[in-house]
Amino acid sequence: MVQFSLEDAGKLAEASYNSINIVSPRVMRSCPHHDVQAHLLEGNILLLPGSNSVRDYLRYNLRPLLLGHKRLKLSDDSLAKGSSGTIWHQGFLAYAAVVADWLIKERVTPTFIIGHSLGAAAAQVLTKSYGVPGIGFAAPRPRHTRGPIKNGKMCLIINRQDDVVPNLPGAFHHVGQVTALLPNPKHRFLAHKMSHYRDIVEVGQITGRLPTHWAGS
């Protein structure tokens, strides 16, 4: 099982919004889909940045239970479900599905997954699906159902308590091992920035709340 330095994962997550800033490991390929950002690095490391356009927010972040502009009830059989029967936030699942389809075309199975924000939501779905470890920063909640699921602890989720995004959507739940750190000072509206998450990783390691490396659980 591949293990990854949290410090290096934070650097990559911050650099993911402009892939030319990624020097090592090198970017081998990037997803060509117009609304989905994903990079495949050396060693088949999958890197997923968050939303970088209004269209991302409308198409993926704001679709917890919407398909085709139709609101669906939780009892509706047409809700998006995983093979485990898990009911997912359908926008996050749709985003993860685009990434998974791209990886199938590339004939690649990721060895490790790193994501921030929307990318961290997709990382939770994909680490469970592939059974590989991952790290998600500032992660929203993608799962509507509760209870243990196979590979449900593969993703390490690092959140800040002054960031509102990890508490959304309210009726959903995280998938993985969650560490919510209380920063000092608080950054409130700027807390979601990946640069502030890199700061909190260092603090979490000094206080023993976070490991130096992650290889899944």
TrEMBL record:
- What's the protein name? Lipase (Class 3)
